[in-house]
Write a structure and sequence with these properties.
Length: 394
């Protein structure tokens, strides 16, 4: 991190998904963050605008990056309004600009997040009207600044959303399949596997290709925001385009060639077409190979490596079909994939239990609102090609 006056530093809250907090903290350390502090679905740290830009552009497991503007306690509605109005909003927003306010509350006097958002918006607008004779307009979709108001009891935290659209929207996926794993979840799972891009990578149920693309970006050190055209901080009054361009050029200069094969397959022709389209959008269609075929029918694309798969589950796979399906997955791994390490990400249900293998690790995660498990299986050489399995780690 470059030397910056202490006054230029401010608290930063980096949001992520449940179960991803530790890998996010590790990634932030790699980006130069000192002493990150894990929270529920977030990591807190301190930094300047340079770091804020760098996290948005480079961090794979971040969903949003929030700049903490102020924390205060209040006694009633009028006191809340007054303190919001006193904040220096003109440092970030022009009087003729647009804003949106998102509010979240727990155990407060308001009991209504929509009321908080309207009340805060009025306080901000009234400050501009009194000082400049004009009020900024509300734009809920693409505002110049998006304000987050978090209230717990009588404590209010005011944050500015520097990301704009969620950072899982990398910019390469124009088409998606039903119930996909989003990009941040896929990137986090890849980090959780411990893969260092030093072995082949195989997703035998690749869907729209998200795991494949995130694996290739990780292996080639392509920044997470490489394909994005816009970040929220670009509309802030203090945005420094030259600084951001320097950060981009430095990160982009680290991109390397991929030394190990990344391979995907899917039984559905439509899924494969979408995966190929997304790979082409990311200019990775020459770095990742995909083929049509069912997992149980094909042969391993290489002699050993990492398997990551996200089989269908829930409403997409009725229970009777799920039991047979997961038995087939387990049998295929045992019979054909000795020497591989396999990770399966799916909703834990009765069908999942019939994979017939003993996991060496279990990690609780979410896919959207669905509670899921990420399970690790070590496929050792054994008698008649069967796998030997370690004692599960608690």
């Amino acid at each position: 991190m470059t030397d910056t006056p202490a006054a230029a530093f401010f608290p930063i809250i980096v949001k992520t998904f449940a179960g991803m907090e530790e890998v996010l903290a590790e990634e932030l350390c790699e980006l130069g963050v000192a002493a990150p502090h894990t929270l529920k679905r977030a990591v807190a740290c301190e930094g300047d605008n340079n770091l804020l830009y760098r996290i948005n552009y480079c961090c794979r497991t971040a969903v949003r990056v929030l700049k903490q503007m102020q924390v205060f306690t209040f006694t009633d509605n009028n006191d809340f309004y007054r303190q919001i109005k006193e904040l220096p909003w003109e440092l970030y927003l022009n009087a003729s600009g647009t804003l949106a306010v998102d509010a979240f509350e727990s155990e407060s006097i308001f009991n209504n997040s929509l009321f908080i958002a309207r009340f805060a918006k009025d306080a901000i607008a009234d400050r501009f009207r009194e000082r400049y004779g004009v009020r900024p307009n509300v734009d809920l979709t693409k505002p110049d600044i998006r304000v987050n108001i978090h209230i717990h009891k009588n404590t209010c935290t005011v944050l500015l959303d520097s990301s704009g659209e969620s950072l899982h929207k990398r910019g390469y996926r124009t088409i998606q399949v039903e119930a996909p794993v989003n990009e941040v979840t896929a990137a986090g799972i890849i980090r959780l596997t411990g893969w260092k891009a030093d072995t082949p990578f195989f997703d035998p149920m690749c869907g729209s290709g998200t795991f494949l693309i995130e694996a290739a970006m990780f292996a080639m050190k392509i920044p997470a925001g490489y394909y994005r055209k816009h970040f929220g901080f670009m509309k802030w009054k203090d945005y420094n385009a030259d600084v951001f361009e320097t950060i981009k050029k430095k990160a982009d200069a680290d991109i390397i060639e991929n030394d190990h094969p990344i391979f995907g397959a899917d039984v559905d022709k439509k899924n494969l077409r979408i995966a190929r389209e997304n790979l082409k959008n990311a200019a990775l269609h020459h770095d990742v190979e995909v083929r049509l075929g069912a997992f149980e029918e094909g042969q391993p694309p290489f002699t050993g490596g990492l398997i990551v798969m996200n089989p269908p589950y829930g409403e997409r796979l009725p229970l009777n079909d799920a039991i047979s399906f997961y038995k087939t997955i387990g049998n295929t791994l045992k019979q054909k994939y000795a020497g591989f390490t396999a990770w399966i990400f799916a909703q834990e249900n009765e069908g999942f239990k019939h994979v017939g293998l003993r996991p060496t690790r279990k990690i609780s995660l979410y896919n959207g609102k669905l509670e899921c498990k990420l399970l690790k299986f070590e496929m050792y050489e054994g008698k008649k090609g069967e796998g030997k399995f370690e004692v599960p780690k608690v």
